[in-house]
Amino acid sequence: MRILLLEDDEPLGKALVAAITQNSFQAVWVRRVVDALALLETDMFSIALLDIGLPDGSGLDVLRSIRLSEKKIPVIMLTARDGLQDRIDGLDLGADDYLAKPFAVPELLSRIRAVIRRTAGFADSIWRVGTLSVDVARHSATIAGLPLDLSLREYTLLVELVRNAGVYVTRSRLEAVMFGINQLEGNSLEVHIHNLRKKLTDVRIRTIRGVGYQLEVTP
Fold first, then answer.
1. H-type helices in the chain, by residue range?
2. In sequence order, what are the residues at sequence separation of 6 or more whose Cβ sits closer than 8 angstroms to the Cβ of residue 47?
3. Cβ neighbour number for residue 82 with a 10 Å cutoff
4. What does the DSSP 8-state code read for residue 1?
5. Torsion of CA 140, 145, 151, 152, to 10 degrees
6. Which of 16, 29, 118, 147 yields a CA-CA distance of 20 to 30 A from 54?
7. What pLDDT is recorded for position 81?
8. Which one has a higher pLDDT value, 84 or 118?
């Protein structure tokens, strides 16, 4: 999962990127509102973490832009401000959660998992489709109870397909989630789909020509 982090504090930003990466997420860190807005125009993210007080504006401006667009990206606001009005403004603009600084990194990671879980429509951290189970808290997966040996990109691809189980996911979205908009690698997506299909013995990934892929949901 790719996470957009908007945070101008350099020590905190570095610490959060390290923690996010260690937990098998991909972090894209920017320190200005203008850079976050530019990335959101071209890139794809599973969630955005937005600081409010920034040198060139507010994370609320980025939140407002996300909600006015067609992008359905969950958002957690991060801020040192603890005023009631700041929380009200963020939630009224459509923030999914709000975390005041200072905070414990494990709590932030837990909130990230919770928000992604809620927006994906799953009740807990284990997402099930047929005999396939993906534990997003432990970054692991099983098929018919047997553990799956997945690379980071295979796991990222599987999570995106499971999140949208029964619905097609466009090729461009899968490529952006896996590689970033400027890091496409030829037919690499097809290679990962092929490898994933060999491992998902009981679950089918359907190709929708000219569109993308769909993880089929069977009764």
1. 10-22, 33-42, 59-68, 84-92, 105-120, 152-163, 171-179, 188-199
2. 1, 3, 4, 73, 74, 75, 76, 112, 115, 116
3. 9
4. -
5. -20
6. 118
7. 63
8. 118
Query: Burial level of 99, CB count in 10 A (0-12/13-18/19+)?
Result: middle
pLDDT tens digits, residue range 20-76?
A: 888 878 899 999 999 999 999 888 888 999 998 899 999 999 999 999 987 788 999
CA distance 142 to 83: 44
- Model pLDDT for residues 154-191, shown as the tens digit of each residue: 988 998 898 888 888 888 878 877 776 555 555 688 89
And the tokens for 71? Answer: 């992008």
Phi, psi at 108, each rounded to 5°: -60, -45
Structure tokens at 88: 């009200």
Place of tokens 């993880």: 215
